[in-house]
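note to self: dont lose this again. the chain is below, predicted strucutre after it. 193 aa total, dont forget to put it in the shared folder this time
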Amino acid sequence: MELVTFLLFSMIEMFGAFVFMMVLFRENPMEYTWQAAVVAVLMGLQSYFLRGIDLGFIAVVINILFYVLLLAAVVRLPLIWSAIIACAGFFPYAFAQAALFELFQGELLQLITGISFMIVAYILYRFGIGFEANYSLLRFRWEKIMVVLVVVGAFALTAITMYQKAVWINILFFGAASGLFLYYAIRKEREER
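---
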Protein backbone atom coordinates (compact mmCIF):
# COMPACT_ATOMS: atom_id res chain seq x y z
CA MET A 1 0.00 0.00 0.00
CA GLU A 2 2.90 2.36 0.74
CA LEU A 3 4.24 1.91 -2.80
CA VAL A 4 0.80 2.58 -4.34
CA THR A 5 0.39 5.78 -2.30
CA PHE A 6 3.93 6.87 -3.19
CA LEU A 7 3.28 6.26 -6.91
CA LEU A 8 -0.05 8.12 -6.82
CA PHE A 9 1.42 11.29 -5.34
CA SER A 10 4.54 11.00 -7.52
CA MET A 11 2.28 10.89 -10.58
CA ILE A 12 0.44 14.04 -9.47
CA GLU A 13 3.79 15.71 -8.93
CA MET A 14 5.15 14.55 -12.29
CA PHE A 15 2.05 15.67 -14.19
CA GLY A 16 2.16 19.08 -12.52
CA ALA A 17 5.73 19.64 -13.67
CA PHE A 18 5.16 18.09 -17.12
CA VAL A 19 2.03 20.09 -17.90
CA PHE A 20 3.74 23.28 -16.71
CA MET A 21 6.88 22.76 -18.82
CA MET A 22 4.84 21.92 -21.92
CA VAL A 23 2.47 24.88 -21.61
CA LEU A 24 5.38 27.21 -20.76
CA PHE A 25 6.65 26.52 -24.29
CA ARG A 26 3.19 26.46 -25.87
CA GLU A 27 3.10 22.73 -26.44
CA ASN A 28 -0.04 20.65 -25.89
CA PRO A 29 0.53 18.23 -22.98
CA MET A 30 -2.85 16.53 -23.46
CA GLU A 31 -1.63 14.81 -26.63
CA TYR A 32 0.89 12.85 -24.55
CA THR A 33 -1.16 11.91 -21.48
CA TRP A 34 -0.77 8.13 -21.57
CA GLN A 35 2.94 8.31 -22.49
CA ALA A 36 3.50 10.75 -19.63
CA ALA A 37 1.61 8.37 -17.32
CA VAL A 38 3.95 5.49 -18.21
CA VAL A 39 6.99 7.71 -17.62
CA ALA A 40 5.45 8.93 -14.34
CA VAL A 41 5.17 5.35 -13.08
CA LEU A 42 8.80 4.67 -14.06
CA MET A 43 9.92 7.90 -12.36
CA GLY A 44 7.97 7.01 -9.23
CA LEU A 45 9.35 3.48 -9.08
CA GLN A 46 12.97 4.52 -9.45
CA SER A 47 12.48 7.31 -6.92
CA TYR A 48 10.84 4.94 -4.42
CA PHE A 49 13.59 2.35 -4.64
CA LEU A 50 16.45 4.86 -4.64
CA ARG A 51 15.04 6.51 -1.52
CA GLY A 52 14.86 3.09 0.10
CA ILE A 53 18.64 2.71 -0.23
CA ASP A 54 19.45 6.31 0.77
CA LEU A 55 20.12 7.46 -2.79
CA GLY A 56 17.07 9.71 -3.07
CA PHE A 57 19.23 12.66 -4.10
CA ILE A 58 20.06 10.86 -7.37
CA ALA A 59 16.34 10.36 -8.09
CA VAL A 60 15.92 14.06 -8.87
CA VAL A 61 18.67 13.98 -11.49
CA ILE A 62 17.22 10.82 -13.03
CA ASN A 63 13.75 12.39 -13.09
CA ILE A 64 15.08 15.40 -15.02
CA LEU A 65 16.63 12.99 -17.51
CA PHE A 66 13.26 11.20 -17.78
CA TYR A 67 11.63 14.54 -18.66
CA VAL A 68 14.31 15.21 -21.28
CA LEU A 69 13.81 11.76 -22.80
CA LEU A 70 10.02 12.13 -22.73
CA LEU A 71 10.27 15.44 -24.59
CA ALA A 72 12.86 14.16 -27.07
CA ALA A 73 11.52 10.67 -27.75
CA VAL A 74 7.75 11.09 -27.39
CA VAL A 75 7.05 14.77 -28.07
CA ARG A 76 9.78 14.65 -30.75
CA LEU A 77 11.54 17.87 -29.80
CA PRO A 78 15.25 18.33 -30.53
CA LEU A 79 17.40 17.00 -27.70
CA ILE A 80 18.86 20.40 -26.82
CA TRP A 81 15.41 21.98 -26.67
CA SER A 82 14.13 19.02 -24.66
CA ALA A 83 16.81 19.70 -22.05
CA ILE A 84 16.04 23.43 -22.02
CA ILE A 85 12.30 22.87 -21.66
CA ALA A 86 12.73 20.18 -19.01
CA CYS A 87 15.01 22.39 -16.93
CA ALA A 88 13.00 25.59 -17.47
CA GLY A 89 9.90 23.73 -16.28
CA PHE A 90 11.43 21.59 -13.55
CA PHE A 91 13.53 24.17 -11.72
CA PRO A 92 10.64 26.57 -10.95
CA TYR A 93 8.70 23.53 -9.73
CA ALA A 94 11.58 22.43 -7.52
CA PHE A 95 12.01 26.02 -6.28
CA ALA A 96 8.35 26.09 -5.23
CA GLN A 97 8.73 22.76 -3.42
CA ALA A 98 11.86 23.92 -1.64
CA ALA A 99 10.15 27.18 -0.62
CA LEU A 100 7.10 25.30 0.72
CA PHE A 101 9.10 22.56 2.42
CA GLU A 102 8.94 24.14 5.88
CA LEU A 103 5.12 24.38 5.67
CA PHE A 104 4.30 21.07 4.00
CA GLN A 105 6.17 17.82 3.57
CA GLY A 106 5.80 14.44 1.94
CA GLU A 107 2.64 13.64 0.05
CA LEU A 108 0.92 16.89 1.00
CA LEU A 109 3.79 18.87 -0.52
CA GLN A 110 3.61 16.78 -3.70
CA LEU A 111 -0.15 17.26 -3.90
CA ILE A 112 -0.07 21.03 -3.31
CA THR A 113 2.74 21.76 -5.76
CA GLY A 114 1.40 19.35 -8.40
CA ILE A 115 -2.08 20.86 -8.38
CA SER A 116 -0.73 24.42 -8.09
CA PHE A 117 1.46 24.00 -11.16
CA MET A 118 -1.42 22.48 -13.12
CA ILE A 119 -3.47 25.57 -12.23
CA VAL A 120 -0.59 27.87 -13.23
CA ALA A 121 -0.29 25.95 -16.51
CA TYR A 122 -4.02 26.38 -17.15
CA ILE A 123 -3.73 30.14 -16.55
CA LEU A 124 -0.73 30.35 -18.90
CA TYR A 125 -2.65 28.40 -21.54
CA ARG A 126 -5.86 30.37 -21.09
CA PHE A 127 -4.13 33.73 -21.57
CA GLY A 128 -1.72 32.54 -24.26
CA ILE A 129 1.36 33.17 -22.14
CA GLY A 130 4.47 31.19 -22.93
CA PHE A 131 7.51 30.99 -25.12
CA GLU A 132 7.34 30.40 -28.84
CA ALA A 133 10.47 28.50 -29.68
CA ASN A 134 11.58 27.92 -33.23
CA TYR A 135 13.10 24.50 -32.69
CA SER A 136 14.85 24.42 -36.04
CA LEU A 137 16.96 27.48 -35.34
CA LEU A 138 20.05 27.46 -33.19
CA ARG A 139 22.11 30.47 -34.21
CA PHE A 140 25.43 30.30 -32.37
CA ARG A 141 28.04 27.88 -33.54
CA TRP A 142 28.97 26.75 -30.01
CA GLU A 143 25.48 27.11 -28.58
CA LYS A 144 24.72 23.38 -28.47
CA ILE A 145 27.90 22.66 -26.55
CA MET A 146 27.28 25.58 -24.20
CA VAL A 147 23.69 24.50 -23.48
CA VAL A 148 24.75 20.89 -22.93
CA LEU A 149 27.44 22.01 -20.48
CA VAL A 150 24.97 24.22 -18.61
CA VAL A 151 22.40 21.43 -18.42
CA VAL A 152 24.99 18.85 -17.33
CA GLY A 153 26.28 21.33 -14.74
CA ALA A 154 22.74 21.90 -13.50
CA PHE A 155 22.20 18.14 -13.19
CA ALA A 156 25.43 17.78 -11.19
CA LEU A 157 24.55 20.70 -8.94
CA THR A 158 21.06 19.30 -8.42
CA ALA A 159 22.53 16.01 -7.20
CA ILE A 160 24.95 17.84 -4.89
CA THR A 161 22.30 20.12 -3.39
CA MET A 162 19.86 17.26 -2.89
CA TYR A 163 22.62 15.27 -1.21
CA GLN A 164 23.32 18.15 1.18
CA LYS A 165 19.70 18.04 2.38
CA ALA A 166 19.83 21.72 3.30
CA VAL A 167 16.54 23.37 2.34
CA TRP A 168 18.01 26.89 2.06
CA ILE A 169 20.66 25.60 -0.38
CA ASN A 170 17.88 24.01 -2.46
CA ILE A 171 15.93 27.28 -2.47
CA LEU A 172 18.99 29.26 -3.60
CA PHE A 173 20.03 26.71 -6.21
CA PHE A 174 16.60 26.14 -7.75
CA GLY A 175 15.93 29.90 -7.73
CA ALA A 176 19.19 30.60 -9.55
CA ALA A 177 18.69 27.70 -11.98
CA SER A 178 15.13 28.85 -12.70
CA GLY A 179 16.40 32.33 -13.46
CA LEU A 180 19.16 31.02 -15.73
CA PHE A 181 16.96 28.76 -17.83
CA LEU A 182 14.14 31.31 -18.06
CA TYR A 183 16.66 34.00 -19.08
CA TYR A 184 17.97 31.68 -21.78
CA ALA A 185 14.45 30.93 -23.01
CA ILE A 186 13.53 34.65 -23.13
CA ARG A 187 16.76 35.51 -24.92
CA LYS A 188 16.22 32.77 -27.52
CA GLU A 189 12.64 33.91 -28.14
CA ARG A 190 13.76 37.53 -28.68
CA GLU A 191 16.58 36.47 -31.00
CA GLU A 192 14.20 34.42 -33.14
CA ARG A 193 11.80 37.33 -33.65
